C-alpha cells in the first residue's frame, strides 16, 4: 500500500532513508502530508508570490511560538527517544513554508535549546529534545531567512502566535494570527 505518514516522518535521517528505500523497493509512494499548504491564507500568499506580487524575495521571517511547553512535566515530544522537540513539532511546518514560499534551501545554521527540565516517565531526568529553536537560512535564489519556534513563549490567553513576513523587490507580504 502507499504510505501517507504523519510528521515526524522518522526520528532520524537514517530511519527516513530506510523508509524511502523500502518504498522504492516495494514500488509504492511514501510521503509526509504537511497540511498547512492547504490552509486558505497560506494558499493565498503562495498564489500572490506565483503571480509576482513579491518579485524577487530578499528575506523571509517565519515565527511560530506557543506556551504549551512551559510546564515541567513529561511530554512525549520532549522525550528524545520518542519525539523531535519543538523543531519536529512546529519547526517542520516553518521549514516547509520557507521552502514552499521562497524556494530550495542551500545552507542552514541552527541553534537548539532546552530550557525547561522535565522528568522522564520513570521520574528520573529526561534525555530531552529542544523546546526552542532559531535557524538562519540561505536560499538557492539568494534570499536569506530566519525561523524561530518555541513552546516557551508567555502569551497569556493567546496560546500561540504565528507570523510570516516576506520582503521582496516588488513588495512585502505579511501573514500573522
Largest sheet: 6 strands, mixed
Terminal Cα span: 38 Å
Helix content: 10-25%
The side-by-side strand order for the widest beta sheet comes to: 4-5-6-3-7-8
Structural class: alpha/beta
Overall pLDDT score: 94
E-strand count: 8
Number of separate helices: 3
Note the beta-strand portion. Answer: 25-35%
Q: Any low-confidence stretches, pLDDT <50, length ≥5?
A: none
What Rg is obtained from the alpha carbons, in whole angstroms?
A: 18 Å
Order of helices and strands: EHEHEHEEEEE
Overall, the morphology is globular
Q: How is this structure best described in words?
A:
There is one protein chain. Helices cover 24% and strands 31% of the residues. The chain is α/β, with parallel strands linked by helices. Helix 1 links the parallel strand 1 (3-5) and strand 2 (30-32). The radius of gyration is 18 Å and the shape is globular.
Short overview:
With 177 residues, the protein is an alpha/beta fold. The protein is built from 3 helices and 8 strands; from the N terminus they run E-H-E-H-E-H-E-E-E-E-E.
Amino acid at each position: 500500500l502507499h504510505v501517507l505518514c504523519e510528521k515526524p516522518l522518522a526520528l532520524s535521517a537514517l530511519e527516513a532513508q530506510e523508509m524511502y528505500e523500502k518504498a522504492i523497493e516495494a514500488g509504492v509512494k511514501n510521503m509526509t502530508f504537511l497540511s498547512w499548504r492547504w490552509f486558505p491564507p497560506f494558499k493565498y500568499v503562495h498564489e500572490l508570490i506565483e503571480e509576482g506580487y513579491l518579485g524577487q524575495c530578499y528575506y523571509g521571517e517565519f515565527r511560530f511560538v506557543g506556551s504549551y511547553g512551559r510546564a515541567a512535566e513529561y511530554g512525549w515530544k520532549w522525550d528524545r527517544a520518542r519525539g523531535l522537540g519543538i523543531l519536529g513539532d512546529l519547526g517542520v511546518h516553518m521549514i516547509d513554508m520557507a521552502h514552499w514560499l521562497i524556494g530550495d534551501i542551500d545552507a542552514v545554521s541552527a541553534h537548539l535549546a532546552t530550557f525547561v527540565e522535565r522528568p522522564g516517565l520513570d521520574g528520573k531526568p529526561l534525555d530531552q529534545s529542544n523546546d526552542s529553536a532559531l535557524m538562519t537560512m540561505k536560499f538557492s535564489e539568494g534570499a536569506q531567512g530566519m525561523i524561530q519556534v518555541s513552546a516557551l513563549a508567555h502569551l497569556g490567553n493567546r496560546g500561540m502566535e504565528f507570523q510570516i513576513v516576506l520582503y521582496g523587490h516588488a513588495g512585502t507580504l505579511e501573514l500573522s494570527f
